[in-house]
Automatic annotation (TrEMBL), chain A:
It is a peripheral membrane protein. Pfam families: Adap_comp_sub, Clat_adaptor_s. CDD domains: AP3_Mu_N (cd14837). Keywords: Cytoplasmic vesicle, Golgi apparatus, Membrane, Protein transport, Transport. InterPro entries: Adaptor_comp_med_subunit (IPR050431), AP2_Mu_C_sf (IPR036168), AP_mu_sigma_su (IPR022775), Clathrin_mu (IPR001392), Clathrin_mu_CS (IPR018240), Longin-like_dom_sf (IPR011012), MHD (IPR028565). This is MHD domain-containing protein. It is found in: Cytoplasmic vesicle membrane; Golgi apparatus. Its main location: membrane.
From TrEMBL, chain B:
Keywords: Acetylation, Membrane, Protein transport, Transport. The keyword NADP does not apply. This is AP complex subunit beta. It comes from Phoxinus phoxinus. Residues 718-828 form the Clathrin adaptor alpha/beta/gamma-adaptin appendage Ig-like subdomain domain. The keyword Transport applies. It is a peripheral membrane protein. One of its GO terms (biological process) is intracellular protein transport.
């Protein structure tokens, strides 16, 4: 099981360690540093590192490496999932997960880690149970605590801990009962030079914010559930009902949670909302090149494309760019070699265009690789897959809750090859 | 107000300041002080000096303060064991607290304090907590048993905690069940042979019920535990699968993968014609695809496992090629894995798509990735014949880019394509030659030289090209030097007139000016060949090469099977069997996929059938890296026998047999186990021998008739006469001689202990070092009476093969330690491998055929057994006594071919073909095994059995 955890920042400083069994010397991290150095980019550090006596399993999140040490055969996915859960818990407690905030709340962090794992076995990882055991810091509470001397550790056994619905505490009370659902879809796509789709899929999630009194039993149904061929549910969802009736039936956790995620694969037709016409070329002589990019709407279902950003990773030899944008602003960072063009809203009548010349390091040969374009965008009030929520019913409680559904489509890993 | 204030220090010294604060009367101040201590601890500062002061704060009603003190205690108790005792009273009191949270906290913390004195006090509270009315306390206590076991395993067993823990599997609360399973699994890992997790249909049912209700982490533990179970029949297998399938839709990817493991394993048992089997296959694809949209670290582990799944059951993901397309911002470790899977999934149907992608990757930024992409194109060409032409033209396009490393990789793979499809694409050689100057990597240079040498007759200026390489001969790497030598010799044999000078030059460079023994040896061999018999040289050097196979890097089927049973573990990430891991391997047992239900078994054998029947590759070259070594073999070694040197142990045995060994053999064996046929080797027709052998053989008798004309009884296991293992001089008067025997399926070590000293010897005990096959004493050494001077006693020690495994040199070496009241003595002996031949080692004919084809030819070893005066039937009878089973016999042109199979205790199969020519006392023996290192020892057994 998980033996120890080390938190290491991007600069290679080890700023927190926690051991659940015997203490393991931090020198074990030298193997990690070695791998870190070899990988050059922090993203490229291999997740599982073998050392003579231990295995180091690590994740990289928010510029922090979470390095766990294990000694026996443990499913690595279990460890990785758990490390992500730790990061999420910090996010949940402190609003962000950064070195500064962890250092600022080191005692709570320590208490949390102790509560989440016992002897390397997960103990309590559900946010609402943890919050009953250890209250998250708020400015008001820490003020009150210092004055009254009360503590931020719960003194009673969390109620949800052992019930068959560990995700919900008993006795929840709200004056306004409300349930909101956000259907968020991300398009992952690769388009080739000519604009044909090489690969496209939709990663969808339904985030929920449910603040309702008592023990509401909810049923969410879709107009077109057949779209969803591959789903993963929050543990609260009754899988049998989904299998038989294609409805999502659940007793929700209190507050924010991810109800489900789904995946619509390349086999189905995935609508591509924009097209990109591009021409990036470098001349054999004269150390220069030309760039011309136009973006236009393709399948937007009548909605407006917003927050449109085009990112180009230029070859190393490109020194500067002298361009002209008909809309939005562009910026070329000569250190990271990233050209960022922030377009904003896409106007179908007047297509945005970025055009101009690139200057290259003099004497350098023509770059070998083709830069690729990354597109970022957002479309409000649209789930690009066409998924629609039909209705939400509540059983088990008497009141009438406010209900709402929001749709948004974003670009995930949306790449255009040149 | 943040915790960073706890890190500030004052001038007077931090420790001093903290000490004062810890002893303050004010509760709040105390708490703040403990927080500061904890903060220092988290960054690795040593605050152990404050131990007594912190422990004093433990007696408090404030839960937060208590928890903080506990945190401190866990970290430092080990360094201050005497002080830690101070805390015991509070712990014991807290275990009685009415608040379950406090009870659980106390038992949990006590378990984390790794101090012996504290653990003693832990037992009583723990026993109570294991039976606590509150499930929260019970589930915490379950984990505590695992902790305690880690500190003091004996104590846990003596106190009966293991049984209590087993009872918790039937607990009414699913969380308690999950934790009990987790704790038991962890304990079982350090206890290889214990029967801790005794799974039967009832417990399985309980686990499946708990599975639906416990937390996601608990589900992982339960699923991993389920995977160890072997269902009784296909119906049970199906019902477990049905109940596990919903886990595939869990949001936690570890749950999903553990469920995949259970399904992949149990699916093997389902008949393939069952509808449910097809449904299950379909259900597996979407969750695997979904794993690829998770965080990159999760993707990596998922991809490593998918790589296994794709090899085992390509049909699951055959339509999902596109999800493995590489995105430019994937981390490099994900990119490389995706690429690997793309090639595995490549088929005629999707090859166009795959090639287009690979070509795209070849223009990426990351050099490593680009290289691998180019190699992948070559692998596609070799795998999908129809695409070869397109692959070659893609590679040519890439060569035109003139990007240095792309060109080099392309040339390396084109060489492989030439070998796979000879005389098809040689038209491109001209293009390749244009890039000769840009090659600076040894592998690419070697590949190019190979091409020039191989096709010397079609390249007009081959001699010039090779000569240009020769200029800097001594600066080249060995790989290139060897290749250049061979290429020039090839050239000479093809165009002898113009190149005489060149060949002389290279031979003298290789033999006279080089320090490299490989190079020199090869040079001399060529030289001698060319000077004595040019025709033979031509035959050898220009011999037809075997084709290279389609898949060069498939995981060996038995290993794959084992890995499939370990999906989701570290083993699956490294693609190595769990036993290969030093630390984690203590308790890992080899897991096997259960055989499929009877209905289809006959048509298709469960294990080897699939890979064997579908595609039997003509020959396999292990990996690209070894290619050079292979080329060498090809050039030089036509498949003639390499006569092995006989191991010393053999000679010893033979010698002893001649000189008085027979007496000691008879005497020794009668002493040890009088009921067993003693002189089996000496008198093969003695009846007791046959009786001794027959029951163990099982169906052997029936099989005998099967062979047709099997006359006479099978002889029993041949026992080598006792040899002197430990001379009296080396062991203060204790002399040990001994031998090994296999009787009725039990391995025994027969020893004669002689006391040659003046005083009585008592208190004998024996122990083995780790050895290649995990042999270990199955019981204590039974020397009941003291051994008086000049007395000899014969003992027979039963052995098991479940001990720890470590490869020995030689493989059959066994290091033994014997203790008596005087001292401990060490000796080593070598056992005949036939000791490990098990009684059910008879393979089905079909399976034999498939397996034979399946094992690469490189693993085949040939031996001569000389001076055996037996006909083939008698020989096969004799061999059967030692569990070497003849499966089929064929007579071709007066030669009897016997096909034989052997199974070792660690489930390694050894296949053999023995050629017996009537009237010729020399047998030819070919042995094939996936673990080629055993062949030598198997041969020794043949020799030993047949000659005695």
């Amino acid at each position: 099981m998980i033996h120890s955890l080390f938190l290491i920042n991007n600069g290679g400083d080890l700023f927190l360690e926690k051991h659940w069994k015997s203490v393991i010397s931090r020198s074990v991290c030298d193997y990690f540093f070695e791998a870190r150095e070899k990988a050059v980019e922090p993203d490229n550090v291999p997740p599982v590192i073998r050392t003579p006596h231990h295995y180091l399993i690590n994740i990289y999140r928010e510029k922090i490496f979470f390095v766990s040490v294990i000694q026996t055969e443990v499913p690595p996915l279990f460890v990785i999932e758990f490390l992500h859960r730790i990061a999420e818990t910090f996010q949940d407690y402190f609003g962000e997960c950064s070195e500064t905030i962890i250092k600022d709340n080191v005692v709570i962090v320590y208490e949390l880690l102790e509560e989440m794992l016992d002897n390397g076995f997960p103990l309590a990882t559900e946010s609402n149970i943890l919050k009953e055991l250890i209250r998250p810091p708020t400015i008001l509470r820490s003020m009150v605590n210092t004055i009254t001397g009360s503590s931020n550790v719960g003194e009673t056994l969390p109620t949800g801990q052992l019930s068959t619905i560990p995700w919900r505490r008993a006795g929840v009370k709200y004056t306004n009962n409300e349930a909101y659902f956000d259907v968020v879809e991300e398009i992952d796509a690769i388009l080739d030079k000519s604009g044909t789709t090489v690969f496209a899929e939709i990663q969808g999630v339904i985030d929920a914010c449910v603040k309702m009194s008592g023990m509401p039993d909810l049923t969410l149904s879709f107009m077109n559930p057949r779209l969803l061929d591959d789903v993963s549910f929050h543990p609260c969802v009754r899988y049998k009902r989904w299998e038989s009736e294609r409805v999502i039936s659940f007793i929700p956790p209190d507050g924010n949670f991810q109800l489900m995620s789904y995946h619509i694969s390349a086999q189905n037709l995935v609508a591509i909302p924009v097209y990109v016409k591009q021409n990036i070329s470098f001349f054999e002589t004269g150390s220069s090149g030309r760039l011309d990019i136009t973006v236009g709407p393709k399948q937007t279902m009548g909605k407006t494309v917003e927050c449109l950003v085009v990112t180009v990773h230029m070859p190393k030899v490109v020194l500067s760019a002298n361009l002209n944008a008909t809309q939005g602003t562009y910026n070329y960072d000569p250190v990271t070699k990233i050209l960022l063009w922030d377009i904003g809203k896409l106007n179908p009548q007047k297509l945005p265009n970025l055009k101009g010349s690139l200057s290259l390091q003099s004497g350098a040969p023509k770059p070998e690789e083709n830069p690729s374009l990354n597109i970022d965008l957002k479309i409000q009030q649209l789930a690009i897959s066409g998924l629609k929520v039909n209705r939400l019913d509540m059983y088990g409680e008497k009141y009438k809750p406010f209900k709402g559904v929001k749709y948004v489509t974003k670009a995930g890993k949306f790449q255009v090859r040149t | 107000m943040t915790d960073s204030k706890y890190f500030t220090t004052t001038k007077k010294g931090e420790i001093f300041e903290l000490k004062a604060e810890l002893n303050s009367d004010k509760k709040e101040k105390k708490k703040e002080a403990v927080k500061k201590v904890i903060a220092s601890m988290t960054v690795g500062k040593d605050v152990s000096a404050l131990f007594p002061d912190v422990v004093n704060c433990m007696q408090t009603d404030n839960l937060e303060l208590k928890k903080l003190v506990y945190l401190y205690l866990m970290n430092y108790a080990k360094s201050q064991p005497d002080m830690a005792i101070m805390a015991v009273n509070t712990f014991v009191k807290d275990c009685e607290d009415p608040n379950p949270l406090i009870r659980a906290l106390a038992v949990r913390t006590m378990g984390c304090i790794r101090v012996d004195k504290i653990t003693e006090y832990l037992c009583e509270p723990l026993r109570k907590c294991l039976k606590d009315e509150d499930p929260y306390v019970r589930k915490t206590a379950a984990v505590c048993v695992a902790k305690l076991h880690d500190i003091n395993a004996q104590l846990v067993e003596d106190q009966g905690f293991l049984d209590t823990l087993k009872d918790l599997i039937s607990d009414s609360n699913p969380m308690v069940v999950a934790n009990a399973v987790a704790a038991l699994s962890e304990i079982a890992e350090s206890h290889p042979n214990s029967n801790l997790l005794d799974l039967n249909p009832q417990t399985i049912n309980k686990l499946l019920t708990a599975l639906n209700e416990c937390t996601e982490w608990g589900q992982i533990f339960i699923l991993d535990c389920l995977a160890n179970y072997t269902p009784r029949d296909d119906r049970e297998s199906q019902s477990i699968c049905e109940r596990v399938t919903p886990r595939l839709s869990h949001a936690n990817s570890a749950v999903v993968l553990s469920a995949v493991k259970v399904l992949m394993k149990f699916m093997e048992m389902l008949p393939k014609d069952l509808d449910y089997y097809g449904t299950l296959l379909k259900k597996l694809a979407p969750p695997l695809v979904t794993l690829l949209s998770a965080e990159p670290e999760l993707q990596y582990v998922a991809l490593r496992n998918i790589n296994l799944i794709v090899q085992k059951r390509p049909e699951i993901l055959k339509h999902e090629m596109k999800v493995f397309f590489v995105k430019y911002n994937d981390p490099i470790y994900v990119k490389l894995e995706k690429l690997d899977i793309m090639i595995r999934l490549a088929s005629q149907a999707n090859i166009a798509q795959v090639l287009a992608e690979l070509k795209e990757y070849a223009t990426e930024v990351d050099v490593d990735f680009v290289r691998k992409a180019v190699r992948a194109i070559g692998r596609c060409a070799i795998k999908v014949e129809q695409s070869a032409e397109r692959c070659v033209s893609t590679l040519l396009d890439l060569i035109q880019t003139k990007v240095n490393y792309v060109v080099q990789e392309a040339i390396v793979v084109i060489k492989d394509i030439f070998r796979k499809y000879p005389n098809k694409y040689e038209s491109v050689i001209a293009t390749l030659c244009e890039n000769l100057d840009s090659l600076d990597e040894p592998e690419a240079r070697a590949a190019m030289i190979w091409i020039v040498g191989e096709y010397a007759e079609r390249i007009d200026n081959a001699d010039e090209l090779l000569e240009s390489f020769l200029e800097g001969f001594h600066d080249e790497s060995t790989q290139v030097q060897l290749q250049l030598l061979t290429a020039i010799v090839k050239l000479f044999l093809k165009k002898p007139t113009e190149t005489q000078e060149l060949v002389q030059q290279v031979l003298s460079l290789a033999t006279q000016d080089s320090d490299n023994p490989d190079l020199r040896d090869r040079g001399y061999i060529y030289w001698r060949l060319l000077s004595t018999d040019p025709v033979a040289a031509k035959e050898v050097v220009l011999a037809e090469k075997p084709l290279i196979s389609e898949e060069t890097d498939l995981i060996e089927p038995t290993l794959l099977e084992e890995l499939i049973c370990h999906i989701g573990t570290l083993a699956s990430v490294y693609h190595k069997p769990p036993s290969a891991f030093v630390e984690g391997s203590r308790g890992v047992q080899h897991r096997r996929i259960p055989p499929r239900a009877g209905s289809v078994e006959s048509a298709e054998s469960p294990e080897v059938g699939q890979s064997g029947s579908s595609e039997a590759p003509p020959a396999v070259i292990p990996s690209q890296g070894d290619l050079l070594g292979d080329l060498l073999n090809l050039d030089l070694a036509p498949p003639t026998a390499t006569v092995p040197s006989v191991q010393p142990s053999m000679q010893m045995g033979a010698m002893d047999l001649l000189g008085g060994g027979l007496d000691s053999l008879l005497g020794g064996d009668i002493g040890g186990s009088p009921s067993m046929g003693a002189g089996l080797g000496a008198a093969p027709t003695v009846m007791p021998a046959a009786l001794g052998g027959a029951p163990a053989v099982g169906g052997g008798l029936g099989d005998l008739f099967d062979l047709g004309g099997g006359v006479g009884m099978p002889t029993g296991f041949y026992v080598v006469p006792k040899t002197l293992w430990l001379p009296a001089m080396k062991a203060k008067g204790l002399e040990i001689s001994g031998t090994f025997a296999r009787r009725g399926g039990i391995i025994q070590m027969d020893m004669s202990l002689t006391n040659k000293a003046m005083s009585v010897m008592t208190d004998f005990a024996i122990q083995f070092n780790r050895n290649s096959f995990g042999m270990a004493p199955a019981g204590p050494l039974q020397v009941l009476t003291p051994l008086s001077p000049n007395q000899t006693i014969d003992v027979s020690l039963p052995l098991s093969t479940n001990g720890p495994v470590m490869k020995m040199e030689p493989l059959n070496n066994l290091q033994v330690a014997v203790k008596n009241n005087i001292d401990v003595f060490y000796f080593s002996c070598q056992f005949p491998l036939s000791l490990l031949f098990v009684e059910d080692g008879k393979m089905e004919r079909q399976v034999f055929l498939a397996t034979w084809k399946d094992i690469p030819n490189d693993n085949e070893a040939q031996f001569q057994i000389k001076d055996v005066h037996l006909n083939s039937d008698a020989a096969s009878n004799k061999l059967q006594g030692s569990n070497i089973f003849t499966i089929a016999k064929r007579t071709v042109e007066g030669q009897d071919m016997l096909y034989q199979s052997i199974k070792l205790t660690n489930s390694i199969w050894v296949l053999a073909e023995m050629r017996v020519q009537t009237g010729n006392p020399n047998y030819t023996l070919s042995i094939k095994c996936r673990a080629p290192e055993v062949c030598q020892f198997v041969y020794q057994c043949y020799e030993m059995v047949l000659k005695n």
